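Final report, closing paragraph on structural work. Over the funding period we assembled a curated collection of sequence-structure pairs, and we close with a single example.
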Amino acid sequence: MTAPPMSTCRIALIRSLVLTPLAMLAGCGRGDGPPAPLDPAALAVVVARPGAPRERLARAIDGLFADSGAGETRALVIEVDGWIVAERYGPGFDKTTPQLGWGMSDTVTGLMIGLLVADGRLRLDESVPVPAWQRSGDPRGEITLRQLLQMRSGLRNLETASPAFAADPARMLFLDGRDDMAGYAEAQPLAAEPGRQFAYSSATGVILADLAARVLTDRPDPDLRRQVVGDYLRTRLLEPVRLRSMVPEFDAAGTLIGSTMIHATARDWARLGEFLRNGGAVKGAQILPHGWVEFMTAPSPANQAYGAQVWLNRRGGDGAAPLLAGDLPAGVFAATGQPGQYLVVSPRQHVTLVRLGRGSADQDKAVASHLAEILRLFPER
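Its predicted structure, as stored:
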């Protein structure tokens, strides 16, 4: 006997009963359902009222630490209006662990130079007192302090190379320049007319540190140079800003290694960011000269993405993408260092964020993406 034909409505009903569960199964694991439960330990690193959605912030932080493609995150501190709202550390690190700032050290050196300018010992638009550049006919004698601070001195510099030990930073820090880093940096010829081209240079921070030593003492004794610069930095900046863990290193010639070798805890790096966010003041007391932070965070004529010893979250003159991509408020700036060190300040959000760790240049892009995601959670005020 032949079965009677099914009606159209019965066919539709059967299809719905069979296909709907299959569709539901197909959607599993694709992020269509609710997110997985958050580890209580991941939530615990964020205070109850962080000024952003708490669970979303905890998840974003957890994502940064869990992402092997972003290298090794050793510390993350987020402050809002000077209060720590989130803090997390990797294995072997905690709030008392000083960590090397690498290129973030540039910013500390830039602040010290601002104090020397305020004291009248250095002038922004005069040629700098490097004896090797003052010989008659030497075009380097035209380089000004402003141009050094804005990374447009024109001095020849090979910041990266393959193999890595052929690059100038490696040679200056660890090879033939290590005993007199300023001498190595200041011996470089011009590759461009001073002021015309931007070129980030680790050597510049050492030249600036050498200038500090030269105007604080006229004696070349390494121990004396180390003492006068260390005392000046401590009494004029570190103690007033309460950067108690910050320790600078010096080379054998007594020159502060002002581009790379300054250590501090993640909390003190964040405290430095808050100092910048407040225009160089601590609890209303002005430590830096008025307008110095504004100068540091104003775009350089040679690169709109760089100020004076800090990076700006703007598109560079060469069309390069901003430091932190995405829809972020104007005015975000950062001290950065390789590999993967970030001190990010967002004045309009009242936020300071520090990430310390290690990784490669490719992983650094992932770090920046995570930090932008975290920063976007905080409202503009």
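The first strand starts at residue 72 and ends at 80. The longest helix spans residues 222-241. We thank the funder for supporting this effort.
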